[in-house]
Each structure stands twice: as structure tokens, then as C-alpha cells.
Amino acid sequence: MGLSHSGNYSCEVRTETASVRKRSALVTVTVRRIPVSGVSLAAQPPGGQVTEGDRLVLGCSVAAGTGPLSFSWHRQGSAAPLATGPRYELRAAQHRDGGRYHCTATNGDTTADSPPLWVTIL
Fold first, then answer.
1. Distance CA 35, CA 15 (A)
2. Which of 34, 47, 89, 115 is at 20 to 30 A from 75, Cα to Cα?
């Protein structure tokens, strides 16, 4: 079900010859989005420690929430997102890339942040 399925519904039954026809009372159905919650961040390699020049991949997921879902990536409290989407990749991590990262997930109605992950570049 999606938000577009909200509306008034009724049921109708009739005999094969359509000589008798009955209709139920109208029922209003309102479809709401499930709030986004349980946002988590996973790192590859695990723990967020990577050698300089190696690849680091961060993934963001939600435990609950109906969409469409959007994701953004943030480092050390910067207001502007680093990137969007459920995955963020540093192909060749540099020392300047180290710091505290988190992802934000939203479905347009609710927004939730992951716990922060400290990324260390060795």
C-alpha cells in the first residue's frame, strides 16, 4: 500500500442477474508512512579503521520506515551533506578523511540519524 491508496472504500455485491444489489457503508482508509527509526551505519572494513590509500565503504540502513527513503552523509557536524544515497565510498582514504561520520535517513515526514562512527585513517 502507498499513500495514494488513501480514500473512501465500500463493498458492493449483486446477484448474477443484478436484480438485487447491496452496498456497504463507506469506510475511510488513511495510509500513513511508518516513521523512520533504527538508523544504523556499517563500515567496510569493520570498525572504520583503514590504511591511508585504501578503500572505505560506509552503508546506511533503517530498521523501520516506509518510503521512499532518502539518505545523506555527514562528517563532524557539517551542515552540508558529503553525499546522498545509502552508500558512501572513499576510494583512496586520506588522513584528512578521518573523523566522526553519521548518516541521516528521511521519508519526507520523519528524519533520524545513525549513531556516529569514528573513522580512523592509519
1. 44
2. 34
